[in-house]
């Protein structure tokens, strides 16, 4: 079975001569929830951005359902069913929630009504406040809008960059539960997270990225219980 | 749980019942009737709040509760509509932020302000106070500031080593990762020899495994006699090192007390901590059908 | 095509009092923008004040030449304070707008006939070098000095020596300041004022100091130019400000030698173009008159400035990491 996303020996970076990712590998099968954790500077966000065409790939390959997507622009990938939720600046603050969601389905405006119904069914809070300016929302509410926006294009793959960042504990849990729900509805999810413990608790499989390479991989449970992973990446304060 | 020594918590910090606005035995900061609104929206409305000296106080609460706004008001980065507050007995109303910093308060920012266009070492040196060479006339005569600059460099390198950034000293701060920049900001703040350290979400973006050593740094501050006030969402950190917890919601202080008491209050759990605090989300979502019984603490 | 004259005039452009004046002004702008991040689009105003301060003190108030120059410097300091106090607390773009306006106001004040007795209005001022004794202070006996394209009479040699001396002092000044802790604070302010305030530094005071220092350099540029040519409002137009910006960005805005080298290259290039373009027109290669061809060089300056900002904002000597306009 073709993997939905298959990254092989990926090398990429921002500044010339400095590689953030060094021949890293990752794959996701249909319907999986993949977690990416690791120390700061490991390249987690860079990996996601490379898949979405935001960072120049210097070596290796990325395929989407078997098709080579290296060099393709983000808007092309959106049309192919890839959704991306960046960590910062992920909503249009001066637009209303409704307008934000409309921006999400920009490439296929005819589907707006149908997709709105679907998104509101997952985030009923949004449905009640469509006319509210996104800038006046709290961090957790904005996160909801960002996720909703990404879902408007009915993506088959969702790339999430630290969805729980900056949120209070109850909102973090909500964010993780929502990602799990979205995944159960059939969307393959690849999630970068700093809250490693929570991320692995809901992930099917996880990758620990360190210095631009996939250092450890396994199922979510395996990684959670691996003493080396705990010692190096999860910290013992958690449970 | 962990094999670290549990940090020694300070007790006896408050007078009377532990409720919002309660007095402290040795307050470092006293805040009175401080209000701040942004165009109709009340961001902060605190009747009375006292921050205890030589203790670690955590300021928690949902996003939009006013924590960062309160921070900005206390450190002079914003002016309140009404209110007064004292820092070690000196009134701070109307005092500009740089003077507040000179008085011994230092703060870090939610969005890290590591100066990317300067080297790590220069970032650190900037933190030192009372630098002779910073006066424009004496700057021209290196003889007057070289010696002090060398001493500052020694201190900077020590701190960098403590925060494991010493190998990066000649690199531009732009080349550091997000978490490393957070560390740099904290290390730089310590160069000012503060008495009150105010950290705005210091753990955000920092690898969990690194969190422990960072907590060690914060605990060291208390050992060295400083007072710490920090905003955080990481409840493990709060439980582990905070002596006192202040809970804010919608601009007001809604609860105060030692962590164990405050974090078990139902209202706080409902609004902020969530019911799943100590449960495995894999269980909650039904993703694992068997509950692991060998899951150790 | 008279290549002999073209090359001769071009090489002469390497070392003229105008070049030195521009190097000084570019140095001032390096302090303002390169190091302190202040958007000053009115550097021409500082030059004008320096120049007129010198000339007017000598002609109207009978000051000796060095006294007149000191007045020019004090004028620059006051102008900097006048500009800075209201605007340095605002966003950088506002300083840019205010400085353009201020420089124009200064020029128009010197142009208006209302003060013609003192300023000479459109005709400008001249003869102050003699009246103030600058010419008499010349240590070089009359005669011809140098060789080839760099041949000068004793008066020009005196201005050149004086100008180079001033330039050397100013370069040293800038270098000494920027390598000191004061310079470190300035560079920090350039990037993030709030972070610097959080460390206990009085940001407003530092910015004002930087504005004053750069203003003094600009004023000295005006003075050197005045000592060589004459003083007229037609010189201190906004285009001069943009020539100085081009020189600065060409050499490297956040470096010490960048502004100087940039100014030299700029003026040599200008000398080259002002000689080559008319010749090309006369030879029929360019389909325009000689005069039109000469003004073509200004178009080229504009294009050059745009290309610089887009493709190499750090200039020749600058560090790309330090100075990019795309954040």
Q: Keywords, please?
A:
heterotrimer; A: 239 residues; alpha/beta; six-stranded mixed sheet; four-stranded antiparallel sheet; 10 helices; 10 strands; 24% strand; globular; B: 297 residues; Rossmann fold; disordered C terminus
Shape of chain C: globular
Question: What is the distance, rounded to the nearest whole angstrom, between the alpha carbons of the first and last residues of chain C?
Answer: 47 Å
List low-confidence stretches of chain A. Answer: none
* Assembly status: heterotrimer
CATH architecture of chain C: Orthogonal Bundle
Q: Order the strands across the largest sheet of chain A as they lie in space.
A: 6-7-8-3-9-10
Secondary-structure-derived class of chain C:
mainly alpha
Describe it for me?
The complex is a heterotrimer of chains A (239), B (297) and C (327). Chain A is of the alpha/beta class and 239 residues long. Chain A contains 10 helices and 10 strands. In chain A, the strands form 2 sheets. A 6-stranded mixed β-sheet of chain A has the order 6-7-8-3-9-10, with helices on both faces. In chain A, strands 2-1-4-5 form a 4-stranded antiparallel β-sheet. In chain A, helix 3 (97-104) runs parallel beside helix 6 (139-151). The N and C termini of chain A lie far apart (38 Å). Chain B has 11 helices and 10 strands. Chain B has helices spanning 67-74, 97-102, 120-127, 136-139, 142-162, 178-190, 208-223, 235-241, 259-262, 266-273, 281-284; strands at residues 27-38, 41-52, 56-60, 82-87, 90-91, 105-107, 196-200, 227-231, 244-249, 252-257. In chain B, the strands form 2 sheets. A 6-stranded mixed β-sheet of chain B has the order 6-7-8-3-9-10, with helices on both faces. In chain B, strands 2-1-4-5 form a 4-stranded antiparallel β-sheet, covered by helices on one side. In chain B, 49% of the residues are buried. Chain C is mainly alpha-helical and 327 residues long. Chain C has helices at residues 3-12, 17-35, 43-61, 65-87, 92-111, 116-119, 128-132, 154-178, 181-191, 193-198, 203-228, 238-251, 258-282, 290-311; strands at 144-147, 150-153. A two-stranded antiparallel ribbon of chain C has the order 1-2. Chain C starts with a helix and ends in a 16-residue tail after the last helix. Chains in contact: A-B, B-C. At the A-B interface, helix 7, helix 8, helix 9 and helix 10 of A face helix 6, helix 7, helix 8, helix 10 and helix 11 of B.
């Amino acid at each position: 079975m073709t993997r939905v996303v298959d990254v092989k020996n990926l090398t990429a970076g921002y500044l010339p001569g400095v590689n953030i990712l060094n021949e890293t590998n990752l794959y996701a099968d249909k319907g999986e929830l993949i977690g990416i954790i690791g120390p700061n500077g490991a390249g987690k966000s860079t990996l996601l951005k490379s898949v979405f065409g935001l960072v120049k790939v210097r070596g290796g390959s990325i395929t989407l359902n078997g098709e080579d997507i290296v060099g393709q622009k983000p808007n092309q990938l959106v049309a192919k069913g890839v959704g991306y939720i960046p960590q910062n600046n992920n909503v249009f603050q001066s637009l209303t929630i409704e307008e934000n969601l409309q921006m999400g389905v920009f490439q296929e405006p005819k589907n707006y009504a149908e997709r709105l119904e679907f998104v509101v069914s997952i985030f009923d809070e949004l449905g009640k406040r469509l006319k509210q300016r996104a800038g006046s929302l709290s961090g957790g509410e904005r996160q909801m809008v960002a996720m909703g926006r990404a879902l408007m294009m009915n993506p088959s793959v969702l790339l999430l960059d630290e969805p729980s960042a900056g949120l209070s504990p109850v909102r973090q849990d909500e964010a993780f539960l929502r990602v799990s729900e979205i995944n159960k509805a059939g969307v393959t999810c690849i999630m970068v997270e700093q809250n490693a413990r929570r991320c692995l608790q809901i992930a099917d499989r996880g990758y620990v990225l360190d210095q631009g390479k996939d250092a450890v991989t396994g199922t979510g449970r395996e990684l959670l219980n691996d003493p080396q992973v705990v010692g190096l990446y999860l910290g013992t304060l958690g449970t | 749980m962990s094999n670290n020594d549990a940090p020694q918590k300070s007790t006896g910090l408050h007078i009377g019942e532990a409720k919002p606005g309660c007095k402290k035995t040795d307050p470092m900061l006293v805040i009175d009737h401080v209000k701040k609104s942004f165009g109709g929206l009340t961001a902060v409305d605190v009747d009375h709040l006292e921050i205890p000296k030589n203790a670690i106080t955590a300021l928690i609460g949902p996003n939009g509760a006013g924590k960062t706004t309160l921070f900005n008001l206390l450190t002079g980065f914003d002016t309140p509509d009404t209110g007064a507050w004292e820092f070690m007995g000196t009134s701070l109303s109307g005092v500009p932020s740089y003077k507040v910093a000179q008085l011994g308060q230092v703060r870090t920012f939610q969005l890290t302000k590591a100066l990317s266009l300067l080297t790590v070492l220069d970032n650190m040196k900037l933190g030192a106070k009372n630098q002779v060479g910073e006066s424009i006339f004496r700057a021209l005569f290196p003889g007057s500031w070289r010696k002090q600059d060398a001493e500052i460099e020694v201190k900077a390198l020590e701190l960098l080593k403590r925060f494991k950034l010493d190998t990066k000293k000649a690199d531009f701060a732009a080349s550091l990762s997000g978490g490393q920049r957070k560390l740099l900001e904290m290390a730089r703040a310590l160069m000012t020899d503060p008495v009150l350290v105010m950290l705005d979400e210091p753990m955000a973006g920092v690898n969990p495994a690194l969190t422990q050593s960072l907590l060690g740094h914060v605990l060291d501050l208390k050992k060295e006699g400083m007072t710490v006030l920090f905003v955080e969402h990481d409840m493990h950190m709060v439980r582990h090192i905070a002596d006192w917890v202040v809970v804010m919601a919608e601009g007001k202080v809604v609860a105060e007390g030692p962590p164990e008491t405050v974090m078990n209050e139902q209202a706080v759990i409902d609004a902020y901590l969530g019911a799943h605090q100590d449960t495995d989300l894999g269980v909650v979502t039904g993703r694992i059908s068997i509950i692991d019984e060998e899951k150790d603490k | 095509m008279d290549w002999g004259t073209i090359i001769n005039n071009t090489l002469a452009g390497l070392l003229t009092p105008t070049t030195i004046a521009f190097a000084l002004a570019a140095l001032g702008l390096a302090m303002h923008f390169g190091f302190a991040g202040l958007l000053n689009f009115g550097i021409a105003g500082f030059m004008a004040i320096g120049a007129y301060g010198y000339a007017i003190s000598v002609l109207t108030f009978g000051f000796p030449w060095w006294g007149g120059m000191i007045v020019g410097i004090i004028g620059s300091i006051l102008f900097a304070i006048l500009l800075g106090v209201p605007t340095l607390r605002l966003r950088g773009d506002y300083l840019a707008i205010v400085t353009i306006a201020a420089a124009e106001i200064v020029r128009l004040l010197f142009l208006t006939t209302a003060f013609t007795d003192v300023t000479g209005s459109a005709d400008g001022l001249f003869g102050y070098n003699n009246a103030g004794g600058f010419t008499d202070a010349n240590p070089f006996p009359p005669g011809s000095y140098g060789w080839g394209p760099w041949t000068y009479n004793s008066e020009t040699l005196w201005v050149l020596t004086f100008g180079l001396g001033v330039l050397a002092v100013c370069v040293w000044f800038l270098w000494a300041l920027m390598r000191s802790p004061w310079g470190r604070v300035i560079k920090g302010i350039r990037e993030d004022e709030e972070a610097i305030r959080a460390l206990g530094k009085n940001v407003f005071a530092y910015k004002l100091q930087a504005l004053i220092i750069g203003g003094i350099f600009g004023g000295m540029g005006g003075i050197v130019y005045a000592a060589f040519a004459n003083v007229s409002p037609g010189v201190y137009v906004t285009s001069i400000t943009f020539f100085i910006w081009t020189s600065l960005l060409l050499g490297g805005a956040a470096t010490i030698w960048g502004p100087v080298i940039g100014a030299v290259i700029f003026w040599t290039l200008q000398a080259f173009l002002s000689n080559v373009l008319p010749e090309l027109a006369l030879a029929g290669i360019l389909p325009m008159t000689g005069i039109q061809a000469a003004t073509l060089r200004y178009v080229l300056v504009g294009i050059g400035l745009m290309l610089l900002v887009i493709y190499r904002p750090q200039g020749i000597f600058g560090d790309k990491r330090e100075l990019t306009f795309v954040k």
